[in-house]
Amino acid sequence: MHGGHGSDILFHIFGLPVTSYVTTMWAIMGVFLIVSIIVTRRLNKVPGRLQNLVEFTVEGLLNFFGGILGPEKARRYFPLLATFFLFILFSNWSGILPGAGHVKGFRPPTSTLSVTAGLAIVAFFATQIAGVRERGLKYLKHFIEPIPIFLPMTLIEEFVKPLSLSLRLYGNIFGEETVIAVLFSLAPYFSPIPMQLMAILFGFIQALVFTTLTAIYIATATAEGH
After folding, report:
1. Alpha-carbon distance 22 to 110, whole Å?
2. What is the pLDDT of residue 21?
3. What is the 3-state secondary structure (H, E, C) of 149-174?
4. Cα 186 to the chain's mean position, in Å?
5. Terminal-residue alpha carbon distance, the chain
6. Which of 110, 105, 102, 116 is nearest to 192 (CA)?
7. Residue of 74, 125, 166, 217 with fewest CB within 10 Å of its CB?
8. In the chain, what are the domain boundaries?
9. Quick one: average pLDDT of 47-64?
């Protein structure tokens, strides 16, 4: 598993190893926390640039998810889906910052399978919880239809959907990180620039694809005709 090598371990906390991917996640979460505190504590009727950016992002994502889930469900599951999108997006983009992938202690989290698999697990349980929340225990009936013996296969099928997203996300970001690192070693001043521009676009697309399909899974699980 990429990111599990001893060379990536920076230090230990209570015996638990802390890798460069974890420190990058902490940095991303710290930035989100600081921005949210600043924006929510200084809300103005005439917003400044930062408040404008945050409001534009929230409104855009809410409208986007509303087209998949409907307005009411979009608001209900917005914290989860928006967090998915923003975390994956900035994790992807962290790989194109100066020194990322080359400096120990600063590597994109989505380029390691342990992080993307964790996102898949969250997406899986969130989908099942949403199904039960919206439709009650009758939602669980689809796991044993048409006959109960299909339960193991149905569970595997439900988990494979988000897992495939995590594998695609990991493969793309790890591949981009590797190519940029190779180009940087060959021509450190010019060659990586085109790849970094492409990485900005692909990083956005990967975040959008993962989040969109998660929203579709939730919409399907919460639909009455599921």
Report:
1. 11
2. 83
3. HHHHHHHHHHHHHHHHHHHHHHHHHH
4. 31
5. 35
6. 102
7. 125
8. 6-222
9. 88
Count of positions (residues) in the chain:
226
**Hey, what's the torsion of the CAs at 47, 51, 53, 57, to 10 degrees?**
-110
Q: Which residues partner with 12 through β-bridges?
A: 17
Q: What is the 3-state secondary structure (H, E, C) of the chain?
A: CCCCCHHHEEEEECCEEEEHHHHHHHHHHHHHHHHHHHHHHCCCCCCCHHHHHHHHHHHHHHHHHHHHHCHHHHHHHHHHHHHHHHHHHHHHHHHHCCCCCCCCCCCCHHHCHHHHHHHHHHHHHHHHHHHHHHHHHHHHHHHHCCCHHHHHHHHHHHHHHHHHHHHHHHHHHHHHHHHHHHHHHHCCCCCHHHHHHHHHHHHHHHHHHHHHHHHHHHHHHHCCCC
Q: Which of 216, 123, 117 is nearest to 174 (CA)?
A: 117
Here the tokens at position 14 are 């209570």
CA angle 31, 60, 56 (to 5 degrees): 60
Q: 146 φ, ψ to 5°?
A: -80, -20
User: Is residue 116 within 8 Å of residue 108, measured between CB atoms?
Assistant: no
Q: What is the pLDDT of residues 169-225, one digit of tens each?
A: 888 777 776 776 676 666 666 656 777 777 788 889 989 999 999 999 999 989 875
% of the chain residues with pLDDT over 90: 29
